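Narrative of accomplishments. A recurring question from our advisory board has been how the design workflow behaves on a single, concrete structure rather than in aggregate. To address it, we present the structure tokens for one chain from the evaluation set, followed by the sequence designed for it. No filtering or post-editing was applied between the two.
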């Protein structure tokens, strides 16, 4: 694996059925309402009825002292199970959300396979790889906490 490439995986097990989790994850423009790491989402292009082909510019705050902005184009959507997007800009690569029912619960897996693009990140990636991975895990941990709170509040 090249020093500037990251292959990260996150799993969440949520106490809600897929039918409640899916709309929260696919309503990307609403992420800032519940996910503390998402500062802003701007829809650049509408997709089809399921969101396929849509493009969003997402600005993230992180546990480290920087923000990250990149565009995500939805390249694959299989309702209630898969949402895949291609990132470009501050990071280039692919993100894949996979949802699987586990009775009344939902197993969520997120695979994030990206390359850093900012010159300072490229230079420091070999040294700061563990820090960048930790930062990603913190952001995803916030997402898990925040989606749990959102699901609990919605009852």
């Amino acid at each position: 694996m090249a020093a500037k490439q990251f292959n990260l995986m996150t799993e969440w097990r949520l106490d809600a059925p897929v039918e409640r989790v899916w709309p929260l994850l696919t309503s990307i423009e609403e992420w800032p309402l519940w996910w503390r790491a998402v500062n802003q989402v701007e829809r650049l292009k509408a997709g089809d009825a399921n969101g396929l082909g849509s493009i969003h510019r997402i600005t993230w705050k992180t546990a480290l002292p920087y923000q990250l902005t990149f565009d995500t184009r939805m390249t694959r959507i299989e309702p209630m199970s898969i949402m895949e997007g291609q990132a470009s800009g501050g990071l280039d690569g692919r993100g894949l959300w996979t949802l699987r029912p586990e009775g009344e619960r939902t197993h969520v897996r997120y695979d994030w396979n990206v390359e850093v693009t900012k010159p300072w990140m490229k230079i420091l990636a070999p040294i700061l790889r563990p820090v960048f991975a930790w930062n990603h895990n913190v952001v995803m941990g916030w997402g898990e906490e925040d989606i749990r709170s959102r699901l609990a509040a919605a009852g």
